[in-house]
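Write out the 3D structure for:
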Amino acid sequence: MNAPVSLKASDYKSDLKPVWCPGCGDYHVLLAVTKALAELQRPAHDIAVISGIGCSSRIPAYLNAYGFHGVHGRALPLGTGLKVARPELTVLVAGGDGDGFSIGGNHFLHACRRNIDITYLVMDNQVYGMTKGQPSPTTAPDWDSALSPGGTGLRPFHPLVIALASGANFVARTFSGDIKGTTQTLVEAIRHPGFSFVEVLSPCVTFRPEQREWKSAVHAAPVTPTDDPARAARRIMTDDGFNTGILFRGTRDPYSLARSDTVADMTAFERPFEL
């Protein structure tokens, strides 16, 4: 019998060259994803990567796995439907802060609530990079730019708080520059049953050059992961925005994906609508 082939990170890379801006944090995220998949040793044909629209949503094209590049804000419904139909697949949903928390915000809430066994990876750079520097839901209210002079004045969306409150079973934050930490967090997120949410602080040095300083601001969370939502909420609500690591590892059972071979007879349902 032939020994099983050991898969390497390079085996999960496609032949397409990424077109992100030089210095974009998403390059490191892509590397971390391939390293995580190699550690998990999942065959490429058992993996599906789903995305919406945005710079980060290009990621399925750069991976050697099944992929689907969907419409803006709709990556989670696509990933949810795929996992329900094909529960044996490892489903990774990827996107950015605009795609996930603005037009996709409602889907984010309900994906957390349903707790289906998928992993949602959001590359958060607090700006719409693809549309040339618009403020996003996670942008600070006083960020001054040509497209929002003086800032929006709006309170930023707090994805970790929303994920926890909505029922996500695994909540974590990483920094794209920490490839090792992001890799290991992704491995644990994919292995953890239920809906796993990982926010990756991924600098956009083109439109937010000040984010180069994130590498000095990020720091490991000074606490161990907890399975107590109340304790996790207190930690996240007092967070400075740069704590990294696993902040919540829940024990809620994931949504059951058991399928029935029974075929429903729709005759009785259709009868009242007959003309």
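Residues 18-273 form a domain with the Rossmann fold fold (CATH 3.40.50.970).
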